[in-house]
Specification:
This protein is of the alpha+beta class. The chain is built from 11 helices and 10 strands. The chain is about 50% helix and about 20% strand.
């Protein structure tokens, strides 16, 4: 392990690796990997580093300057940098990042496909798996023992392939629609259960932050808003079509208490459940 870059705390770590000539000719391979805890003063400016750089923003935000353009990135973004050309990047608040420099015989082709589809700032659909794969590479290099070059190459290619797929417009639309449709179906089937954000995000294979952003983009509602709307609509159906008591309707619609049901219903509909029933001629 070598000294960390300026603008990083003592918790940060960087590890360098020298692949064999055979590995360089055959595989994708890392040059160095790191897990940085950055301050807002973290800044890197280079003319050339003869590699590509992948950065995963676990926490925080920052910017990338390349080709005369400045692009901002934030939590859960993936930043891809062509370090063969001049570049500047840094963080603008306290941040945590995972990163690795890599090269390989077809790495340019992979990177160009990603740049063509989404540019240097990317997102992935399954952050949990993506981060696990990053940590596997970091662990292999940081252990200091013999590195399995083929396995290391496998995880680099897997990560880049995920970025190629997720940067494809058709794949992104189909995948996000599928995720949202599955969650909506799950909510409808389990409307009387406790549907926490973490439970729904885990089912989608996403972090709560990214899942909420995706769900709202697809539906116009946050997961919590959608659940409340669904429970209210079920209650309205029962109020109009059955003679169930207010208490029975409350729990049949998935609300946790009669008082919260009445408060929420009044907020959503502008009247109490009893007033709604009266207005719809249900006795």
């Amino acid at each position: 392990m070598r000294p960390i870059d300026a603008g990083c705390t003592e918790k940060s770590a960087v590890y360098f690796y020298t692949a064999s000539e055979t590995a360089k000719q055959t595989f994708f391979y890392p040059l160095c990997v790191g897990h940085y805890f950055c301050t807002k003063e973290y800044l890197v400016q280079r003319n050339n580093y003869n590699s590509f750089l992948l950065i995963y923003i676990k926490k925080g935000e920052g910017f990338l300057e390349v080709d005369g353009k400045k692009i901002n990135f934030r939590k859960e973004d993936v930043v891809l940098v062509d370090c063969y050309k001049p570049h500047i990047y840094g963080t603008t608040k306290d941040s945590e990042i995972l990163w690795f420099h890599f090269a390989g015989s077809s790495s340019r082709e992979y990177v160009n496909m990603i740049f063509h589809n989404s540019g240097p700032i990317c997102s992935v659909s399954d952050l949990i798996t993506f981060e696990k794969d990053l940590n596997r590479i970091l662990l292999m290099i940081s252990n200091g023992s013999a590195v399995n070059d083929a396995l290391c190459s496998y995880y680099i290619v897997k990560i880049l392939t995920d970025l190629v797929l997720c940067s494809s417009k058709t794949f992104k639309e189909d995948n996000t629609h599928s995720i949202t449709a599955d969650i909506i179906s799950y909510i409808n089937d389990n409307i009387c259960e406790q549907l926490s954000l973490q439970t729904l995000a885990d089912r989608a294979g996403l972090s709560p932050f990214y899942f909420t952003r995706l769900f709202k983009k697809e539906t116009g509602y946050t997961p919590h808003e959608y659940i409340i709307l669904s429970r209210t609509n079920i209650a309205k159906f029962y109020l109009k079509s059955t003679a169930y008591s207010i208490k029975e309707i409350c729990f049949s619609s998935g609300f946790s208490s009669e008082s919260s049901f009445c408060t929420t219903f009044r907020k959503m509909c502008g009247m109490t459940p009893s007033e709604y029933r009266e207005n719809n001629n249900i006795s």
